[in-house]
Predict the structure.
Amino acid sequence: MENLKIKFIKKYANLPWGAREEIIAIVDDQNFTWNSANIEIDRGMNPPTEIGEKILKQLQELGILV
């Protein structure tokens, strides 16, 4: 999971500001943009939340994090 977190952070860092408001995942009937996903995933030294882990798995399945 840590590897996916690193890939996400690298992708997020290189996104244009406007793209960060685009919806990238739907988890438990909630929409997540790059910004809201970042809050769930990049928690410093702490691991991603349960929702963050679901988002990472979804992005991997979609081929966004390869």
